[in-house]
Design a protein that fits this description.
This protein is mainly α. The chain has 16 helices and no strands.
């Protein structure tokens, strides 16, 4: 009898608890939101940090075997340099902008964390710093195999510390583009087109690799410019794709509510489907036009689809996300052919992938987001791309005229690994 009474009592308590829980508000405390949001920034930053490895592997695979060690040195170097300068001045140049203004302050970042901000300032800096590193990485691959390491490091310093933070702050820091109503959720223009415009400036100043184009204008795609490792390119693409879930998903900037985590989940689906659609579209286009399925175009098609959806990964339906990804891949393909016809030597296809697809993705935002207009989007795209291109061109030109930008003809013949780092990536022994 006593046992029966205990069981009945326990049952009533459990039932009461379930009923009470069901009727309770599904919100968490301010401290709880602070914890979840901080954790979100941290995890998102870790995912985006993987993109540094992705860029490195992709670039190492697409250059010739004579330049792989140099690419590795450039990537670890710019990752460190961009992080340091963003700490010293970049963050406050971006986020110290007066409302509707153009530039922040030249101050070292400092912590001002409190419950009221909703997240730790440390986690926010870490997350944003990974975006800086990604932007600089876009330039690295385009100018590969003929740029000197230390002039590139100087450019990385200025890109990561000044050029990118200033233009990014116009939107994400509450500057004049934000006031105008420009919308770029995770950076199709603010990150990707910005980096692509800087890459365009770099390849114009540097010129093409020696022998890249024939006397009659034909492109020499295999000899002597064969990619060193297609598996590495593929690995790099997968790492970038994986990192994109942090890049886009955690740009929601909060994970403390039902709406936030639902939004992050939808962003992940749309991001993934856009990349998948870009991959398949590139495969189909290359098969139909060239007669063979081009693996490099497939990989860049995936990236172009991911870039295109980055401006607005939340509002579109999954079907629209796939359409955007597919068109991004098509733009990448024909953009690549256009640059080749103009003898613009972009080693990894950074300009069509990041700049061209990024501009497209930003321009179609009003289709799913009524809070902006095509005119406003065009203004933002034009401002960021022109700013990045002009300042990058000035920097590259100044480096060329002073300390020198390009390796010598003899060094280029030997390869940058021998000339710049003294270490061969693939030493073949007798």
């Amino acid at each position: 009898m006593n046992n029966l009474f205990k069981k009945l009592t326990l049952g009533i308590v459990i039932l009461f608890s379930i009923t009470n829980f069901a009727s309770a508000e599904t919100t968490i405390s301010a401290e709880g939101q602070y914890i979840f949001n901080t954790l979100g920034f941290y995890l998102g930053g870790v995912l985006v940090a993987f993109m540094a490895a992705g860029f490195c592997m992709l670039e190492c695979g697409l250059v010739t075997t004579k330049s792989v060690s140099t690419i590795a040195a450039k990537n670890i170097g710019k990752f460190a340099i961009a992080s340091i300068v963003f700490f010293l001045c970049g963050y406050n140049l971006a986020y110290g902008i007066p409302e509707g203004g153009y530039i922040g302050s030249f101050k070292i970042w400092s912590d001002a964390s409190e419950i009221g901000t909703g997240y730790s300032d440390y986690s926010d800096w870490f997350y944003q710093a990974m975006f800086v590193c990604a932007t600089v990485s876009i330039v690295s691959g385009a100018v590969a195999e003929r740029i000197k390491i230390w002039p590139f490091f100087i450019f990385a310093t200025l890109m990561g510390g000044f050029i990118y933070p200033i233009s990014m702050g116009w939107q994400w820091g509450g500057g004049w583009l934000a006031t105008a109503g420009f919308s770029d959720f995770a950076g199709s223009t603010l990150v990707h087109a910005c980096g692509g415009a800087a890459a365009l400036a770099g390849v114009i100043v540097l010129g093409a690799r020696a022998g890249r184009f024939g006397k009659k204008g034909e492109t020499k795609s295999l000899v002597p410019f064969a990619a060193s490792s297609i598996p590495l390119v593929t690995l790099g693409t997968f790492l970038l794709w994986f990192g994109w879930f942090g890049f886009n998903g955690f740009s929601q900037l909060a994970v403390g509510t039902f709406d936030d985590v639902t939004a992050i989940s939808k962003i992940a689906v749309n991001t993934h489907l856009a990349g998948a659609a870009g991959t398949v579209t590139a495969a189909l286009v290359t098969r139909l036009i060239g007669g063979k399925t081009d693996i490099i175009m497939m990989l860049n098609g995936a990236l172009a689809g991911l870039v295109a959806i980055t401006a607005e990964p939340l509002n579109p339906s999954p079907i629209l996300a796939m359409v955007i990804g597919s068109i991004g891949a098509i733009i990448m393909y024909f953009g690549t052919k256009f640059l080749e016809s103009k003898h613009i030597d972009d080693v990894v296809g950074a300009i069509p992938v990041h700049m061209f697809a990024g501009i497209f993705g930003t321009m179609v935002v009003p289709i799913s987001n009524p809070d902006t207009t095509f005119g406003t989007q065009f203004t933002g795209v034009l401002a960021v791309c022109v700013f990045s291109f002009v300042l990058s061109y000035i920097v590259f030109r100044a480096l060329k005229e002073t300390i020198g930008l390009r390796i010598s003809a003899q060094a280029e013949k030997l390869g940058t690994d021998v000339a710049e780092v003294g270490v061969k990536a693939y030493a073949i022994r007798d």
